[in-house]
Design goal:
This protein has 154 residues and is mostly helical. It has one domain. The protein is built from seven helices and two strands, in the order H-H-H-H-E-E-H-H-H. Strands 1-2 form a two-stranded antiparallel sheet. The radius of gyration is 16 Å and the shape is globular. The N and C termini lie far apart (37 Å).
Length: 154
């Protein structure tokens, strides 16, 4: 049970910081309120709690096939993930579609909130610089992401 309380504490802390970050970068209020709702579904809750917390509630990370399925479901259910906007063509190409601004701002608020909840710091710009080359983003989406990150600087 401690595992589940630890995960609940993290999710609520993360949601709060996403809300705070969203207010800062003017993300739509409703998007910040309903952010990550799917983490409360059994298809995500159990695999996430097991992956990130031991039975006694202490932190860990053990990636499993169950977690990978849960993470895939999370990305496909939540339009604030850039992975949601990738079109996998039958010929093998991956085409990044342009994200609507409301989801881009929620995504940036998500990155900010995750950083704050995990490390205690607002470190989004550093995280983005370290990870941007792994992200397949539409050109216009990337421009907007980077403009929001300039606003979000402490």
């Amino acid at each position: 049970m401690k595992r589940h309380f630890a995960y609940l504490r993290y999710v609520l802390r993360h949601k709060w910081f996403v809300f705070v970050a969203g207010r800062r970068i003017k993300a739509p209020l409703w998007r910040t309120i309903i952010h990550d709702w799917s983490k409360f579904l059994s298809s995500e809750w159990g695999p996430y709690a097991w992956t990130f917390y031991k039975e006694d509630g202490t932190s860990r990370y053990i990636e499993t096939p169950e977690f990978n399925y849960a993470w895939n479901h999370h990305q496909k259910r939540n339009k604030h993930h850039w992975q949601y906007w990738l079109l996998q063509m039958d010929r093998g190409d991956v085409i990044p579609l342009e994200m609507p601004t409301k989801y881009i701002s929620e995504m940036v608020a998500d990155w900010m909130g995750a950083g704050r909840a995990i490390t205690g710091r607002w470190e989004c710009q550093e995280w983005y610089e370290a990870n941007k080359d792994k992200m397949i983003l539409n050109y216009q989406t990337r421009i907007y992401v980077e403009s929001l990150l300039r606003i979000a600087k402490p």
